[in-house]
Amino acid sequence: MGLTVSGAVPEGTEVSSISPNWVTTKLDFLTNWARKNSLWPMPFGTACCAIEFMASAASRFDLSRFGMERMSFSPRQADVLICAGRLPFKLAPVIRRIWDQMPQPKWAISMGACASSGGIFDTYTMVQGIDTIIPVDVYVPGCPPRPEGLMYGITLLQKKIEGETIADPDLRQEHLVGEHGLFLPANRIDEISEPFGNSVHQTRSA
Amino acid sequence: MTASTASLSPSVAALREKFGAAITRHAVSCGDTIVHVSNERAHEALAWLRDEPTQRFDYLTDLTAVEYRDVERALEVVYQLRSIERKADLRVKIELDKTAPLVVDSVVDLWKGADWLEREVYDMFGVRFRGHPDLRRILMWDTYAEGHPLRKDFPLRGHFSRAEQTRQALSANPEAQYSLEELSIAEAYEELPADMRERLRRGERGDVG
Amino acid sequence: MLQPYIPVMLVTAFVIVNAILMLGLSHIFSSYRRTPTKIAPYESGIPVLGHARERFSVKFYLVAMLFIVFDIEAVFMIPWAAAYQQMHQLRGVLFVEMLVFVVILVVGYVYIWKRGALQWD
Amino acid sequence: MSTRTLELDLSTPGVDSEGRPIRVPLGVRAGASEDELGGEHMLVNIGPQHPATHGVLRLVVELDGEVVLRVIPHIGYLHSGFEKLGEYRHYNQIVPLTDRTDYLSPMANNVCLALAVEKLMGLEITERCQVLRVIACEMSRVISHLVWLGTTGIDLGAFTPFLWSFQERERIYDLQEAWTGARLTTSLTRVGGMMADVPEGWTDGLRDYCRTFPKTLTEVDTMFTRNAIWIGRTQGVGVMSAEDAINYSLSGPMLRASGVAYDVRKDCPYLGYETYDFDVPVGEHGDIYDRYRVRLEEMWQSVRILEQALDRLEKLKGAPVNVSDPRVILPPKHRAMSDMEAMIYHFKQVMEGVSTPVGEAYLGVENPKGELGYYFVSDGTAKPVRWRIRPPSFLNLAALPKLCEGVLLSDVIAINASIDIVMGEIDR
After folding, report:
1. What average pLDDT does the segment A149-177 reach?
2. Which residue numbers in chain B have pLDDT < 50?
3. Are A120 and D97 an interchain contact pair (Cβ–Cβ within 8 Å)?
4. What pLDDT shows up at residue C4?
5. What is the pLDDT of residues D346-355, one digit of tens each?
6. Which residues are D361's β-sheet partners?
7. Does B184 touch chain A (CB under 8 A)?
8. Cβ contact, residue pair A48, D56, below 8 Å
9. Spatial CB neighbours of B91, under 8 Å, sequence gap ≥ 6
């Protein structure tokens, strides 16, 4: 799932072939209820956010209230990829390969400022936001986000899953890396990775 | 900092008397003694410092390099030595002229801990270590083509645009993830695509040099 | 005549229907998108080198065979134990039969032990 | 290291004349003859995304059946360019960077940075600030060892100690949050002082912690120390002799478990550690079991130090925390608003940061992972020329290939867990 590459669907086009009737809506409710309450996370824990992720999985902030205590370290059984921590360029092909190897339906949570936008690391080695590598559903701000913040992100994802329908094939598209070797068009990546805030004039070293 | 002779380590006098001209100069900064050694006899001096019964600097605390902001000042390779029984510290520096190729003798035969430290200095500064068993990049991936990041002429965000950096990262193929040694162990040489085999044959592995 | 078998048939029918239901529904509603990277083997996110069909040393095969032999021995004991409990008059004969069976296997066990097949490294 | 018999030349390592990589004869274990029935060697990636690598470490393991012939670690998967960023920051702006290097003991890193810069400037800090920094270091040691205990327990199959240790960590996180406002990215120290003094009632919380924490320690002790599985998996595995430990520049619990009684707090004391009475646990075999015993004992000693530090804190009730020199520490707000000179200092510090004299300073601190050293080279401006972090777990991990030659595959996981690595500090 994730952002469709082609941007917003133009108005007036026929969105889904099967019009929602009594059967599909009941079926949607059933599958979404099942999927929402048993999201098996693939904890792609790289840095400090991974420690907060472990803290939220431990007994005080217990993730198993959301049915998420079963950590699946192999992408084959994973439903939601939680990128907890900063992502250097050396790790970009790894997360891309793991995301491709996860079966549909799959979602992605970008936990922490470094995963969502490169955070304080506007350097030669840091991906400025993992949405330039994989499609992301929920961004959790914070450095590191408190366990409550992560859980709020998870409940947002669950609301998003509630709104999905089986009839729409567009939701379950695989957004692969294009033939020119990029996930998003080049100008889009440069626009996303543009330094902002005080990162703009930080290059004065003396 | 005044070069107060009180905190000057006795090793400096012993070094001067043993190596004479090879010890270019010494100084004291914030209580630590610094000795500058010439590049040719550096390995010999370090071996002497380690094996000499009166010195016994058997613990290599750190090995790094420093490049100053003004261009004509030399790039320094810094050895931080410590003797565990004598609880004494000493900082040995080798100055390298930036215009000439940066090559230093490796000290992996003296201290095994220097293996990864030297690989990191090579990766970050481009200083080659003669005699190092496996001098490869350690922090960046092997086919990293942007140069050596910690040099002062290397921009903070890297040379290429973010899109180009992402494309290079995403198109990393097995040759960037595995070292030559592992490729040969897995006998996977035939499976690599032809252009990669060609690059391997020429030995050009993203080494800007 | 088939009367005693009805419960067994009921259970098998339920099992078959259940399996078909689960597999069928999950196949219909699943959205499997086959891509080259997805079917590639997963090795912690790194492209795999070489192939998994390496030659293994023979001791792994040996241990597997020994396990099968002694596991089947235990499997045969279970029905024997059930029968032994219900048959009151033939207990002596049943016991001797199983004793012979076990002794033959113990001889085999001692043989492989002395030959050192159980020595691992 | 890989016992390589072929001397590879520098320019094109490992490629012979017509271009095929040189088939490197393998460092097969001494005595194991290459019998013809032996299998080919398999290359397995215990890769960046793996539950047992404690972060994004990648181990390429060369296997002969189940026996490991060689482990080739690949790091750099979390390289974030800290040292490059440090050259573009004032000294007080580097403090937030330090707690993101070793994010398991953030306060200890902040203290190490402050001490290194104060050594560079030749600054004397106040007595109360020293005691507060000792408290910060020892609290970091406890939470770092607790994470190690929990994750090593999971690696070797015991899940409950993970929940016990994280329960205790949450209690220290509450104390850290009350003091600095953040659970993990504390940014506690400033050059010449601390960001804030401890709030009211905080010391009672810590005293209560020191009283009840040993109960969990004894539970973990009874769970692990005489546990047959734990002993079977850890005793005699990954042995490191004392000379090798020194030669490989190991530090911290890794070095002390091999029998070298070297602790920076005792050998080159800082922050007044020589006035506290605590003893340094030293193992004798250098295997995983000794590293476990050393770390467990260190937690007991940390609690002892914390109690002594709390008593001193009581005696220094009203003492100032920050240095009184306005050029270094922001003057208190009421003075900055009223007195002209304080306002100028306030403005200069915020705009240009604290400038340090020309020179360089290296300071080693006993971090939970080992000896963490900060090496600052300054050319008189407010931004360092070079900020070198001497990462203890980087050098401890460099000994992994030597420890893992000839062991079983499952022992590689146990040895890797016993080294207690944190990737943020290794890759910097």
Report:
1. 90
2. 1-5, 208-209
3. yes
4. 86
5. 888 888 888 8
6. D376
7. no
8. no
9. B32, B33, B34, B35, B78, B79, B80, B81, D362
Q: CA A105 from chain center: how many Å?
A: 12
> What pLDDT, on a 0 to 100 scale, did the predictor assign at position D8?
39
Asked whether residue A16 carries a pLDDT value surpassing 60, the answer given is no
Does B142 contact D at CB distance below 8 Å? Answer: no
Q: C48 to chain B, minimum CA–CA distance in Å?
A: 8
Model-wide pTM > 0.95: no
* Contact indicator for B149, B114 with CB cutoff of 8 Å: no
Are the beta carbons of D362 and B185 separated by less than 8 Å?
A: no
- Chain C contact present for B161, CB below 8 A: no
Q: Does the distance separating the beta carbons of A124 and D84 come in below 8 Å?
A: yes
pLDDT band, residue C1 (cuts 50/70/90): confident
**Which ipTM score applies to this complex?**
0.87
d(CA D374, CA D362): 6
Q: Which residues of C touch B178 (CB under 8 A)?
A: 49
Is residue C83 situated within a structural domain? yes
Indicate the domain borders of chain D.
83-427
State the smallest CA–CA distance between residue A148 and chain D in angstroms. 13
Residue B203's pLDDT is: 67
Predicted confidence (pLDDT) at residue A197 exceeds the cutoff of 80: no
CATH number for C39: 1.20.58
Half-sphere exposure (Cβ direction) of C63: Cα atoms closer than 13 Å: 9
pLDDT in tens, B73-101: 999 999 999 999 898 999 999 999 999 99
Mean pLDDT value across residues A178-192:
87
Fold of D83-427: Cytochrome-c3 Hydrogenase; chain B (1.10.645)
Residue B100, number of CB atoms within 10 A of its CB = 8
State yes or no: pLDDT of A2 exceeds 50.
Answer: no
Beta carbons of B47 and B35 less than 8 angstroms apart: no
The tokens describing A50, both together, are: 């991974």
Q: Cβ(D426)–Cβ(D48) under 8 Å?
A: no
Q: Is residue C120 part of a domain?
A: no
Q: Does D247 touch chain C (CB under 8 A)?
A: no
Using the structure block, give the residue that is written with the tokens 């850890």.
Answer: D234
Residues of chain B contacting residue A96, judged by C-beta atoms under 8 Å apart:
170
What are the residues of chain D with a beta carbon less than 8 Å away from any beta carbon of chain A? Answer: 47-51, 55-56, 76-81, 84-85, 87-88, 96-97, 100, 103-104, 147, 162-163, 166-167, 169-170, 173, 183-185, 381, 383, 423-424, 427
Give pLDDT, residue C47.
85
Whether residue A79 contacts residue A119, with contact meaning beta carbons closer than 8 Å, is answered with: no
pLDDT digits (tens, 9 = 90+) for A56-110: 999 999 999 998 989 999 999 999 999 999 999 999 999 999 999 999 889 999 9
The predicted-structure confidence for C33-81, as pLDDT tens digits, reads as follows 888 888 888 888 888 877 777 777 778 888 899 999 999 999 999 999 9
Rounded CA gap, A139 and B17, in Å? 65
Q: B170 and A128: CB-CB below 8 Å?
A: no
Residue A5's identity, in one-letter code, is V
The token duo for D303 is 């609690």
Residue B25 CB neighbour total at 10 angstroms: 10
CB-CB under 8 Å, A97 with C47: yes
Please give the structure tokens belonging to residue D265.
């707090």
C121 lies in some domain: no
* Closest of B145, B179, B172 to residue D15, by C-alpha: B179
Taking 70 as the pLDDT cut, the residues of chain D under it are 1-39
Number of domains, chain C = 1
D361 close to D376: Cβ distance less than 8 angstroms: yes
Residues in chain A, overall count: 206
Of C21, D392, B198, B141, the C-alpha closest to A91 is B141
- Residue C39 sits in which domain range? 3-115
> Chain C residue closest to B192 (CA)?
C49
Domains of chain B: 11-146 (3.30.460.80)
